[in-house]
Input
Amino acid sequence: MPTERFQFTGEGGHQLAAALELPDGEPAAYALFAHCFTCGKDALAAKRIAVALAAKGIAVLRFDFTGLGSSEGDFANSTFSSNVADLVHAADHLRSVRKAPSVLIGHSLGGAAILAAAGNIPEARALATIAAPSDPAHVTGLFKEHIDNIRTQGEVEVSLAGRQFRIRREFLDDIAEHELMTDISGLHKALLVMHSPVDDTVGIDNATKIFVAARHPKSFVSLDHADHLLTKPADALYAADVIAAWVSRYVDTAKPAKAMDLPEALRQVVVQETRTSKFNQIITVGPHRLVADEPVAAGGEDAGPGPYDFLLAGLGACTSMTMRLYADRKSLPLERVTVTLKHSKIYAKDCAECDTREGMLDQIERDITIDGTLDAEQRKKLMEIADKCPVHRTLTSEIRIVTKAAD
Output
């Protein structure tokens, strides 16, 4: 399943690093995931849940809050309110390039953040919290011995999960002012509360308070034996399974029509700039979405294959498919074909068999590995068939490209 990486502008004007986990086909729904305090978008729980939901057809956007992971800015300048605002900006960006999230998922303090942000994301119809505190101020318990110094000195460096973070007085003031219970009681959206009864970081009583404050429809699922960070893969996968099943009651997660159901006219290739970086492109082919970019050395962010990568991939896929068709038709014991390709520029004078004698030429090197108990004659025939694949013929024949301005 593809992962699209990009940046968007957060509340403080900083560029926030994001990852959109996509299903193999057209997403049935989009979700926005908020990670735990001082964690990041690539925390194990966040990534495992996002990948598992993508496998079920739900695209999941996760990102690093200001000053965390690969995002710009200073963590010390962030507050709970700025995190909530960043979530709204993430939803706005997703709405502009894809589709607004209909599902919000939050882990730990991220759960409190989505409860606070939900009112400003109108398309969100279903919310799921995992080990969320009922009061954002609960997070100050992680550094309670420093609170007096933070208030008197204005800023103190504290150790959290083995890393150093600067916490400012403004963070304490902001988090103390937030009335999360008011946000919860006014949600008017479906809510799933997930919590472990043995969570020793955020106690189960927090789940009770959230559940009681919320209006129906609401559900509670116990994450038995799980720790706060869902470090066991099975716990994260279970959470994803439950969320996917539960959300189908409130969001249409029926898979779009398969490619075979689409008329040929709708299977055209459409390439469009995302404007999230200099070269980033979204490629749509019927129900499929791909990302294109350039390597960092060429001025891109390497968020996806480059144009020549796609060209080589097309030739490689066509080569392998053609060889497979021939082998199956002739009942050859072909087990697997692997095609490795490389594009380069060479001097025309160095190519003895080329008609062009001056300047530079494009050269594609194609190495084919054939696995199976085939004899020398069968292998020779398969190599001959490789040169007969349709894409190979297209690339080596006269090509006419007609370019016109769209209506």
Q: What stands out?
A: The mean pLDDT is 86. The two ends are 34 Å apart (CA to CA). The domain at 260-395 is CATH 3.30.300.20 (GMP Synthetase; Chain A, domain 3).
